[in-house]
Amino acid sequence: MAEPASMEVTEPLAPGEAQKSGVRPADRHGLLKHSREFLDFFWDIAKPQQETRLEATEKLLEYLRAKPKGSSEMKYALKRLITGLGGGREAARPCYSLALAQLLQSFEDIPLGSILQQIQEKHDLQKVKKGMMRPALFGNLFGVLALFQSGRLVKDSEALMKSVKLLQALGQHYNHLQEQPQKALVDILSQVPEAALQEILPKVLKPDLNSVLGSPEHLELFLLAQQKVPEKLEKLMGPVNLFSDENIPRLVTVLKTVANSVKKERKLPTVALDLLRLALQEDKFPWFWKEVVEQGLLKKQFWPASYLCFRLLGAALPLLSKEQLQLVMQGDLIRHYGEHMVTAKLPKQFKFAPEMNEYVGAFLEGCRGDPERQLALVVAFTSITNQGLPVVPTFWRVVQFLSPTALKGYVAWLQDMFLQPDLDSLVDFSTNNQKKTQDTSFHGPERAVFRLRKWIILRLVSIVDNLHVEKEEALIEEVARFCFFHSFFETKKPTSQIPESEQHFTLPLDGRTREVVCGAFFSLLQTLSTQFRLAPEQTADGRPWTYHLVQFADVLLNHSRNVAPLTAFTTQQRQAWDRMLKTLKELDTLSSEAKATAFQHLLLLVGIHLFKSPAESCDLLGDIQTCIKKSLGEKTRRTRSKATNPQEPPWVEVLVEILLSLLAQPSHLMRQVARSVFGHICAHLTLRALQLILDVLNPEESQDEDDNVVVTDDSEEQLLGGAEDKSSDGEDSKGSKVSESEEESDDDDSDEEDRDGDVDQGFREQLMAVLQAGKALGGADSEDDNDDEELGDEAMMALDKSLASLFAEQKLRIQARKDEKNKLQKEKALRRDFQIRVLDLIEVLVTKQPENPLVLELLEPLLLVIRRSMRSNSSAKQEQDLLHKTARIFTHHLCRSRHYCRTAGDRVETLYARLERLVQQAGQQADSSVALYHFNASLYLLRVLRGSTVDKPARKAQKKEKASKDASSQPQGPEMLCKSLLPIVVEHVTSHTRPRHQVQACLLLQKTLPTRELRVCFKDPEWKQLMGQTLGKVTEILRTLGEAETKSGHQKDLAALELLNTLFRNFHHEKLTMDLTAVLGVLQSQQLRLQQRLQQGEHSAGSSRLHDLYWQAMKFLGVQRPKSEKDTKEAPQATQQSPVSMKRKKKGFLPETKKRKKHKPEATTQEAAAAKPEATSGDQPPSAGKKKKKKKKMKKTKSPALSQMNGTPAAKSPTPEPPAVSPSTPTKTPKPQKKTQKLAQVNEATPLPHQSPEEPVAKKRQKKLPQKGVSGKSPQSALPRKKARLSLAIRSPSLLQSGAKKVQLRKAKKL
């Protein structure tokens, strides 16, 4: 293969030589030799998008690989990339550097020395101007980085030495490059082999300790040499003790500098970690940590330095032994870290806790084989406390990496710290604000112990709650027994049979701590119950955890000498406990049944609650046991028992009352248990049991209760709303001082409003009486004109006492009134919360028993709840939650359910009455959303009624025959309801309502009238009367066709025309004879208006649809759509075209110059045009000079479209008066015409709505008309002249259609 002619870029010629030789100036950069695609690569490389840069670089490399070696493209690419290293855009320099590195990595035959030489020549620091010094410096720096990133620099010693020298030269320009050259030098030297490093080290490192400690880069280079070539370093600098006392200030300064440099990157500098490793290597870690880190960096009070210390601590964890871990976790640094965790609470503050969690998690995961170090670290972080409260959260997730041994040791440490708190072993601290406002009486050791014990018990529960923690079954049981024992029992005499009795307290448990432990225990119980539901066999014997806890409680009760419950059981309560255990044993035999398992779970939980509330739980246990026995032995007892007590309520009602009482407790666990048990008994639910649930949601009773809370005064309503908001948001704003101050100010404002608003007339009268009495006492000796004279001292004192007592009484009355309001408001909130919980039972019922007839009883109560909540203006959270949950259950689980009740039975009449009531209520609602809920309920009842009539089996053949006979005469079901509703819908078509209501009425009629089931419900006269009424209403609404100015009005016109077309189809299908004269007149009167609006472009989105529907209706009436309709649509577009667009040739059409022109004189054309009206009359025969082929075509043509230019058929004679048609004479609905009818039959018959075989011919003629005109006028020019003559047939298309067809045949032959 021959080499390219020119391998190098052509040099430009001198101006004189160019003029002498006549040659054009040379292509200086060789751009003319390269394609546009190749040049675009370099533009894409400099773009900010990373994907675009990488893709352009890959394409450039593929392009260059396809070229031969030493091609001009390669030389241009190298020159272009080297030029881009020092470009003006700073963001493009790294892009070109990376592209150059990949290019050098792909083409290893390119020598690095030549590339480095080209870089230095292009960005020569000696020749560059002062203004271009900065780009040249960065060009050299990025060039060296490109060589290093290619991976070939460390292998080329010559290029490596030159690069090192260049970086040293660049290091002198600190103002522009700062420490970047030194960092690049350290990165390069860290990758070179030891032999090369020994050769380069004397040239880059000065044998001076002051120089080494002068900058982080020099120190990092020293540490690199110390790590890789320590012998060469010692020979160069001699023995160096870096960790001496005199070097501490300089080390701290260097570390502070490097901490400030990585402030934005938030990473650990390499020099700090190398110093730590060197200290560990030389056994000087304690000195380094204490002197440099804690006494040096921390004393600077500089947050970047503190974050450097935190990162250094996290990175050092895997490198430290157990003793060293204890050293670093007991010092000032870890206390400083705790202060940071406590104070960094604001959203915008930087929080180091997530980063430290990553360090700790990585350490624990990496040393799972060393449980001692794991335990030491976790205990150390737990020991960081703020006045007794550990700073790490109770849900600290790093414990999931603990090994089982370490986790067991950690739980044991937590229990020991709970029993015997050792505050001295903790790293406790107080923040600056706490020190300023510290009260020794409040911040005592008792408070610290309480805070510590509270955290520990929650930490134990969260360990069991965390599913990711690998824990043994014995550990779970140990934590559960620990919490249960210390919640409800105390030790009298230790015994080995109860390990918990051998646990001693250094400080006794107070009542607050026991309440916390009790709450934590029931939270743990909820977790164990949830896990039991997900994994039933989580214990070895397959029993739930609650069963083991009940057995443990029975053991504790039997050892009354050793332990005693905090609240002693009475004889009745102990008997209830024993009966519960007996019932549990009976349920074990029926454990295969799901209902027995649910009852067992309920018994266990209520039995455990016996220790918390003995009196209430004792009664519940007795009722539950009775219900269980009746429910499980219901069938056998019915056969054996001779008589039952009629006054005794069924067991399901008693159990429902028990579940409601459990839901009244603020326990999420009880809420879950109630749902679970109710799901198993809802199949046995009775109407009375359901009514017990609905009584809680009964809006009437709730409204009566709400009337007691309603306050007429506006200020009092505002006070109640503020109390609601404050009670709901109080927990969230507990930690913010700003929000607390705002709440206090709001409370002050509300107090002032209460003072102003609560001044009643009685207080005013008392105040006036006191003032008048004081005036009488002091004004006895005063004159009448001296009203402003001051009172005496005694009178003034007496008046002050009277006023003080009066205002004190008023203040007490106001406070009592306010307390009463708050009490009622809290009761209302609790009542709403209870109703929300009761909705769980209704949700379970409609989900698990959707086909139960009792579900139908839920419609109206749920609608009443929705209506009441929508009408209330309360913005309380409970009210909104109640509304949302009720609406969700009603809509998704009830109305939209696929399964519903199909056996109405004897409730059909009741359901019809309920359906009528719901429809009436829907029409009376002021809110459309509430009306929609009632409408959905009505549809649901229609589904039920339809399902009950369709799916109801006929048991006897006679009933089947009778039902089939009566089906056509008297149908039953939703069709009859639809029949009774149709007149109402018809009236709404033209009623004075909103346009959208009229649209809905039209749509309903359009959907229902064609149905066959509805037609069966009507007799023929009734059906014809209904059709006539509907047609009249539609005709009335069409009188305003085309006048709509709004979107809703336009939709009304569309719906009316669609309904009219539906009626026409119905007339044709059933062969009804209707009077269509009025409809035709109304439609023809609106034609001109519709055409004008279409030309003006109004409502362009739906005007074409409206026009199509209009002509579809006119087609049913026998009036065909004229050709001019399409021409008028195209004419404005043709006139608005620009001259440039007119010159363009249409695809598929010949230009005007290529068309064949007929050589006719102009007079002949005018005579032919004048002869057209004569041919319209039909007296003259068609011309005989036409070809036979045209005659055959004319015989096939049957469409009157040519003569109907104005939407009306042509008449036989030009008489000005139309034939009289009596309005009483009904115009028959046109019938369809078969395609095989002959021309004579067509002329004699009435116009037909379906003439599809003729339309294509008319369209072809319509398209050919503009091409035949020689005068250049539009084919619409004949429209004004013919309009007057053709207007005769406007009112009677059915009588004059035949004449129109004859006229068109003759016209077509003439064409």
How is this structure best described in words?
By secondary structure, this protein is mainly α. It contains 61 helices and 5 strands. The strands form 2 sheets. A 3-stranded mixed β-sheet has the order 2-1-3. A hairpin with a 2-residue loop joins strand 1 (about 385) and strand 2. The relative contact order is 0.02. Mean pLDDT is about 75; it is low at about 1-30, about 530-535, about 635-645, about 700-760, about 780-790, about 950-970, about 1125-1145 and about 1160-1310. One of its GO terms (biological process) is regulation of DNA-templated transcription. Keywords: Nucleus.
Q: Share of helix among residues?
A: 55-70%
β-strand number: 5
| β-strand amount | under 5%
Distance between the termini: 74 Å
Overall geometric form? extended
Q: What's the alpha carbon Rg, rounded to whole Å?
A: 49 Å
- Describe the strand arrangement of the main beta sheet, using strand numbers: 2-1-3
Which structural class should the secondary elements be placed in?
mainly alpha
Please tell me the overall pLDDT.
74
Number of helices: 61
**Biggest beta sheet summary:** 3 strands, mixed
Low-confidence stretches: 1-29, 532-537, 635-644, 702-758, 780-788, 950-969, 1125-1146, 1160-1311
Write a short abstract of this structure.
This protein has 1311 residues and is mostly helical.
Summary keywords:
61 helices, disordered C terminus, disordered N terminus, two-stranded antiparallel sheet, 65% helix, mainly alpha, ARM-type_fold, nucleus, DNA_pol_V/MYBBP1A, 1311 residues, DNA binding, 5 strands
